[in-house]
Write a structure and sequence with these properties.
The complex is a heterodimer of chains A (1149) and B (288). Chain A is α+β, with helices and mostly antiparallel strands and 1149 residues long. Chain A contains 29 helices and 54 strands. In chain A, β25 and β26 form a beta hairpin. Chain B has 288 residues and is α+β, with helices and mostly antiparallel strands. In chain B, the strands form four sheets. In chain B, strands 1-2-12-9 form a four-stranded antiparallel β-sheet. Chain B has a four-stranded antiparallel β-sheet with strand order 3-8-4-6, covered by helices on one side. In chain B, strands 5-7 form a two-stranded antiparallel ribbon. The chains are: A alpha+beta (1149), B alpha+beta (288). The structure holds iron/sulfur cluster (SF4) and zinc ion. Iron/sulfur cluster binds next to α5 of chain B. Chain B: Belongs to the archaeal Rpo3/eukaryotic RPB3 RNA polymerase subunit family.
Chain lengths: 1149, 288
């Protein structure tokens, strides 16, 4: 088919007119100038959007728009018990975040919530109208529940505050927001990836037959419709039917009268007729000719639903025919509306599904790729919360209804029933808090029961927190071993980071957004539909379009036009339609996130405005010239233009995955061809935030970048500006973090430089001492002395002072003193019974001297309780020595005292601590060497770290080599090097700088051995590399035990370091000992040193007995004494308890 | 063989650094000198800090670490004992120096520097040069730092804070000789290229005489680029790059706690004492 190529679309917006120079035809053949610094659009983009805009936008949409719609849909409560009674919601709004108690006049800051274990939430208030007796009462601002508020969303108090104000509120100005604070924990609602709803997906079933499926989703209902093939015949498969229904029967039941009509809708070409013939045959053999017969047939296949016995059966039971018609109208393809049982839309849709299957039978290319990203939708916090809110609101309304009913049933009511008094916010508040703090999303209506939706925001490093906000979870089962959904799909280009995914079971299922990705929110459909109709779309349901017109088989040129998966109509000049819509979008008449996708193979135009699509901004190119010129960039730098102005002026537009298929996108200006439609803003944006930290990632082997993405999240560094005011469960901070010598643009954009996590170490790549095998590092002791790799570990230890039901309270006891000498354990306590900040806590020291009353149940009026009525329940320090950094006293929601003690310990690197560079090269400290033993160069510099050169050849991390060069040159020039992806400083330039400063161009130096004083026989690659200290430290893992605690049940040694457990001699170790024949050792390890137990066994009956007495034989003659593992004795007894009698047969050896 | 007499020739002497040439001795001796200067020359450094009040943003260990790294004038370090060898139980005037620091910030911000450390011994003070005192911590309004610090005598082996030097290094004196016979046979282009092959401009080409000469041999970093080039043009013997035997160019840069010459002298005397010990012990062994 001949069609105008998309690049010929002429759309000059009025704004463009004054830039006449661009369109000067005489200049068309000039070489295209590079728009220098077009990457500046990237910071401009991030300035308006921030890095977590997708979360915040989605939440804002929910809280400002969606919540009102949900209220409208559930606005009225009535009851059969009293027909006059009603309760109606009028308006709903979410207020300012506040705390329940009035410590600060109700207002609450996020940081206060973190410290006090509160939930950062705001009241949802509604205006209501209801009947009280015979009156109609109106009330404004009734709180129906509390909604957790996303930080930096439109309802958050931090929005629009400048850094100074944020600092006053105890907040970090470079924190991204986008998470919730729930009971003091920071919680992120992960982005959920799903297959898109309301779209036809052609796939192969497990018998390799082509089938079509549609998952319909509307506000009321979710359903799945399949059209399947069996033996060349087509069937409809829905859950509500017991059996697959021949498709022709369904079409007849929907009111398609003649076979001719059916054929015309499916396609009149011979291929289609042949494909459907067998299905017609089946319909005839079932002797179904009329609609009535078809409905009767379908009615007989309806699954019988067992209704609950409490609900009365509907008195006027509808006939099977009616029921069948109902199901066809509501369940089958439920997203296609049916008005007055006019099935025209629906059978058009169904015949389209059939047509697609028949097409795919002939041409396997027509089978959809399930992993294609245009078929995916991302569910964000707003959507998930709105699901939860509707469910909770329904529950809330039901509870109100029940209260009302039970009240009306009461005889002789004294007071007039006032329903507003029953409106407690608890249902909704607790529902939200429970969902967010557990991560379990249970929505009964849609049979949704998902877990792991929320996660605790990882505050290990700044980048881990930021990376957490861009993380995305797939609904796909982690255990399944398939590669399809896990592998990188070409359509993900620019939308998802190709490097950032975990290793192991979640590999490829957990993904991260790229730097410029935007996730859309829902947009109004009706105006768009109207616009499309005005642009010449012939509607299916109004116009009596013939089947030929819809299929386009009869020489008709019409393309089907879809709006969000619904058939809107057909258009005879689809290219003009697409072009006009895009034109209007560039002019701002249509929302910027609306996508128009022309699918020539399917003869369709897909218009999408639904939420959850991923899209990204691109520079528009027409006639071979990018619309963004240097002049624009200059204006951007001068602050005259903002990113949004570029959008408004139609210089830039957002493309989603589908629309990208209609575009030719050039990466660089030099690649622009006559048919190019768009230009990338900056190639580094294909990477996400975590991968953006890597210098020269394009020179590395790709898995190395993936490893670094995982390790960057474990790097110790600065976390946020408010890091020292936080009291987190565990916080690792670095004492002297440094900006990397070689940075990237992403590093500058994300603010990593302000809160870095690592240090620039001078590295010599050479072997030294033999303690550097297997990636171990050699560290310079003097560097450690001077603060290299030094870190602070802060840990929270909370104690709560409880109030018991009899009103008695826990109390804090003053430190014990005897003859003026403090009790040894109480030495560190202040007079209030809590440790004084600054004291060192040693093993055994008490840090909170809490006392609990002995009587916590019975009422006791004795006010001045004596010491005798309490017993000590102190918190005692049991670990390595630490300092008490802070003590905080506060109260929580639940109204008891909370004491938080923050412990601090400063650690210097030691043998076995883990370090890593930014190239996925991790290693532990193998030896710490004195400075005088280190090799030195002619300037007397010696390395901080010596790295073994064997780390390079197999890893192929060329980026690390270049990083060293770039860093070294930077040191001499007094500036930072750049290692930005697909750019950065060139090795050639770097070498020139090195030579200029009297160094070898290849970065190699002549070193002298510090031990012998002789020059080393090789040139050593020597220079700075940015090293991260990872959270895995020997001090937290080191463990050994001789004798120690045992488990109560089995009497075997406990497991794990925390319980001072034993070291397991596992199966494989056991195998070794067996193979070696060391049976005595085996016996010693597995029994004597574990759970040896002496029992007495009767030689006669083989049962266990007493020492010298068998209770079974009532005899004292036959007892023998044996040693067995306690676990086996336990097994015997458990067997006996199950009525199995194990008997031991003893023999003399 | 006549006994060698090691010689020292001072090339440059500045307030905080010196360069000298040690000659007529082995690398082992030169290296021993270097190692002793780094690791075994005693100085004074703050080793114990007692905090009375610290409301600054940095916590106690952080500040203590920073205090330790401040160089203290140690020219009179001889008068102190090592604490572990001193007769006192804890520490005393003979083995330690007490410092006091008390700063309260009343303005918007205030920097606590090494100048705020007041010593009880005039000989041991924080090193101070012109107006660049060492910042310990920056205080905000209302914050206070009050502490007592005790400096002790120690050596760099124990902790880098006791190192008296920033850089102590020696390099070999380069010996670069051009084989002028071969050079004369080269054409002009090759001569120029040869001269330019060195990244640190050791060679110079004289246009008038059309000769290549060794201009600044001491610049050489032994990168072998000149060698590579001469190999490339098929004359591997064109240039000889090596070092002069038994000549070591030392650079000693002081952290400020000791003058550079003090460091060298102190190191030499320590070396001497060590040798004397060896001598003593050996004699005792032999006498038996
Ligand atoms: S070895 Fe290198 S630095 Fe030395 S002279 Fe030759 S080229 Fe120049
Ligand atoms: Zn018995």
């Amino acid at each position: 088919m001949e069609e105008p190529a998309p690049q010929k679309i002429e759309d000059t917006t009025p704004q463009d007119m004054d830039e006449g120079e661009l369109y000067d035809h005489s200049k068309l053949n000039d070489p295209i100038k590079r728009v220098e610094d077009k990457w500046k659009l990237l910071p401009a983009f991030l300035k308006v959007r921030g890095l977590v805009r997708q979360h915040i936008d989605s939440f804002n949409y929910f809280v400002n728009v969606e919540i009102k719609k949900l209220m409208k849909a559930n606005e009225k409560i009535t009851t059969d018990a009293d027909p006059k009674f009603f309760l109606k919601y009028h308006n709903i709004s979410v207020g300012r975040p506040s705390a329940d108690d009035d410590m600060n006049g109700g207002d609450v800051t996020p940081h206060e919530c973190r410290l006090r274990d509160l939930t950062y939430s705001a009241p949802i208030s509604a205006d209501i109208e209801y009947t009280r007796g015979v009156q109609i009462v109106r009330k404004k601002g009734v709180t129906i529940g509390r909604l957790p508020i996303m930080l930096r969303s439109s309802k958050c108090i931090l929005t629009g505050k400048n850094p100074d104000e944020l600092a006053k509120l105890g907040e970090c100005s470079i924190d991204s927001g986008g998470y919730f604070i729930c009971k003091g924990n920071e919680k992120v609602i992960l982005i959920q990836e799903q297959l898109s709803k309301n779209r036809i997906i052609i796939e192969l079933d497990n018998k390799k037959n082509v089938c079509a499926s549609v998952t319909s989703s509307t506000e009321e209902r979710k359903s799945k419709t399949n059209v399947v093939q069996k033996n060349g015949k087509l069937y409809l498969r829905i859950n509500t039917f017991t059996d697959d229904i021949p498709i022709i029967v369904v079409l007849k039941a929907m009111g398609m009268q003649s076979d001719q009509q059916i054929i015309s809708f499916i396609g009149s070409k011979q291929d289609f007729v042949d494909g459907i013939a067998a299905s017609f045959q089946e319909c005839y053999s079932l002797e179904i000719f009329t609609r009535q017969q078809a409905l009767e047939y379908i009615g007989s296949k309806i699954k019988i639903v067992f209704r609950s016995p409490f609900k009365a059966m509907p008195t006027n039971r509808r006939s099977k025919v009616d029921e069948a018609r109902d199901i066809l109208a509501t369940v089958l393809l439920s997203h296609v509306p049916v008005k007055n049982y006019d099935f025209r839309m629906k059978y058009t849709y169904l015949t389209l599904m059939i047509r697609r299957i028949l097409l795919a039978n002939k041409d396997p290319h027509a089978i959809d790729d399930k992993d294609y990203y245009g078929n995916k939708r991302l569910e964000l916090a707003g959507q998930l919360l709105s699901l939860m809110f509707e469910d909770l609101l329904k529950k809330f309304n039901n509870e109100l209804k029940k209260t009302a009913e039970s009240n009306f049933q009461k005889q002789n009511r004294v007071q007039v029933f006032d329903i507003s008094a029953c409106m407690t916010p608890k249902t909704i508040t607790d529902g939200f808090i429970h969902a967010i703090s557990t991560g379990n999303w249970t929505v009964k209506r849609f049979k949704m029961n998902r877990s792991g939706i929320t996660q605790v925001l990882s505050r290990l490093s700044f980048i881990s927190a930021l990376g957490h906000m861009t993380r995305m979870n797939s609904q796909f089962e982690k255990t399944r071993k398939v590669s399809g959904p896990r592998s990188l799909q070409p359509s993900q280009f620019g939308m998802l980071c190709p490097a950032d995914t975990p290793e192991g079971e979640a590999c490829g299922l957990v993904k991260n957004l790229a730097l410029m990705t935007h996730v859309t929110t829902d947009d109004e459909e009706p105006p768009l539909a109207r616009l499309a109709i005005n642009l010449g779309v012939l509607e299916v349901d109004i116009n009596t379009l013939s089947g030929e017109e819809i299929t386009g088989d009869g020489g008709m040129k019409g393309y089907l036009v879809f709006l969000n998966g619904q058939i809107l109509g057909i258009h005879t000049q689809p290219h003009i339609l697409a072009r006009s819509l895009r034109l209007l979008r560039r002019q701002g008449r249509v929302k910027e996130f609306v996508s128009v996708y022309l699918h020539d193979e399917q003869h369709s135009v897909y218009i999408a405005s639904d939420g959850g699509r991923v899209c990204r901004p691109l520079i528009i190119v027409d006639k071979g010239r990018p619309r963004v010129t240097e002049e624009h960039i200059r204006q951007l730098s001068d602050g005259i233009f903002a990113f949004d102005d570029f959008l408004k002026r139609g210089l830039i537009e957002y493309l989603d995955v589908n629309e990208e298929n209609n575009s030719m996108i050039a990466v660089y200006e030099k690649d622009i061809k006559p048919n190019t439609t768009h230009l990338e803003i900056e190639p580094l944006t294909v990477l996400g935030v975590c991968a953006g930290l890597i210098p020269y990632p394009h020179h590395n082997q790709s898995p190395r970048n993936t490893y670094q993405c995982a390790m960057g999240k474990q790097a110790i560094g600065a976390i946020a500006y408010n890091q020292l005011n936080r009291i987190d469960t565990l916080l690792y901070l670095m004492v002297y973090p440094q900006k990397p010598m070689v940075k990237t643009k992403t590093i500058e954009l994300t603010g990593y430089e302000k809160v870095p996590a690592g240090q620039n170490a001078t590295v010599a790549v050479m072997s030294y001492s033999g303690y550097d095998i297997e990636d171990a590092l050699v560290l310079n002791k003097a560097s450690i002395d001077r603060g290299f790799g030094r870190c602070i570990v802060l840990k929270k230890h909370a104690t709560s002072v409880k109030k018991y039901i009899n009103n008695s309270l826990d109390r804090l006891g003053a430190p014990l003193e005897e003859n003026g000498i403090r009790n040894k354990k109480h030495e560190k306590l202040d007079l209030d019974g809590i440790v004084s900040p600054g004291e060192q806590l040693l093993n055994g020291d008490v840090y909170v001297n809490k006392q609990t009353p002995k009587n916590t149940t019975n009422i006791n009026n004795n006010e001045n309780r004596s010491d005798a009525e309490f017993f000590d329940t102190p918190s005692t320090w049991k670990s390595n020595p630490v300092f008490a950094d802070k003590v905080m006293l506060t109260s929580t929601d639940e109204d008891h005292f909370l004491i938080k003690m923050l412990s601090r310990s400063t650690r210097r690197p030691e043998l076995g601590d883990k370090f890593s560079s930014r190239h996925g090269q991790k290693g532990v400290v193998g030896i710490i060497v004195n400075q005088e033993d280190m090799p030195f160069n002619h300037q007397g510099m010696c390395p901080d770290i010596i790295m073994n050169p064997h780390g390079y050849p197999s890893r192929m991390t060329v980026g690390k080599l270049i990083e060293l060069l770039g860093g070294k040159a930077g040191v001499f020039e007094g500036r930072h090097g750049y290692g930005t992806a697909f750019g950065g400083d060139k090795v050639e330039d770097i070498s020139r700088v090195l030579v200029k400063h009297g160094y070898n161009y290849s970065g190699k130096d002549t070193l002298t051995s510090g031990v012998t004083g002789e020059t080393l026989n090789a040139y050593i690659y020597f220079g700075p590399i940015y090293y991260q200290k990872l959270k895995h430290m020997v001090m937290d893992k080191m463990h050994a035990r001789a004798r120690g605690p045992r488990a109560v049940l089995t009497r075997q040694p406990t497991e794990g370091r925390a319980r001072n457990g034993g070291l397991r001699l596992g199966e494989m170790e056991r195998d070794c000992l067996i193979a070696y024949g060391a049976s005595a050792l085996l016996m010693e390890r597995l029994m004597v040193s574990s759970d040896q137990f002496t029992v007495f066994v009767c030689k006669d009956c083989g049962l266990l007995g007493y020492s010298g007495w068998c209770q079974f034989c009532k005899s004292s003659l036959t007892m023998a004494r044996i040693n067995i593992p306690y676990a086996s004795k336990l097994l015997f007894q458990e067997l006996q308890a199950m009525n199995i009698s194990p008997r031991l047969k003893l023999k003399d050896l | 063989m006549p006994p060698r007499q090691p010689q020292i020739e001072i090339v440059e002497m500045k307030k905080d650094s010196m360069t000298f040439i040690l000659s007529k001795t082995d690398a082992s001796i030169a290296n021993a000198l270097r190692r002793v200067m780094i690791a075994e020359t005693p100085t004074m450094s703050i080793d114990l800090v007692e905090f009375e009040n610290n409301t600054s943003v940095l916590h106690d260990e952080f500040i203590a670490h920073r205090l330790g790294l401040i160089p203290l004038t140690s020219s009179r370090v001889e008068k102190f004992n090592f604490t572990r060898e001193c007769s006192c139980t804890d520490n005393c005037e003979n083995c330690s120096v007490r410092f006091n620091l008390h700063v309260t910030c009343t303005d918007d911000t205030k920097q606590v520097t090494s100048d705020d450390l007041f010593s009880t011994d005039a000989d041991v003070r924080p090193v101070h040069r012109e107006d660049d005192s060492i910042v310990i911590v920056k205080l905000a309004k209302g914050q206070e730092l009050k502490l007592t610090a005790i400096a002790k005598k120690g050596v760099g082996k124990e902790h880098a804070k006791w190192q008296p030097t920033c850089i102590t290094t020696f390099q070999y004196d380069p010996d670069i000789r051009i084989n002028q016979n071969i050079m004369d046979r080269l054409d002009e282009e090759k001569k120029v290229k040869f001269a330019n092959s060195c990244p640190v401009k050791v060679f110079a080409y004289d246009k008038d005489t059309r000769t290549v000469s060794v201009e600044a041999a001491s610049n050489c970093v032994y990168c072998q680029e000149c060698k590579f080039y001469s190999n490339d043009i098929g004359h591997p013997d064109l240039v000889h790059v090596g070092y002069k035997p038994e000549r070591y160019i030392f650079t000693v840069e002081s952290s400020g706690s000791l003058e550079p010459q003090e460091i060298v002298l102190s190191a030499l005397s320590i070396l001497k004492t060590k040798l004397a010990h060896v001598h003593e012990n050996l004699k005792n062994e032999v006498d038996f």
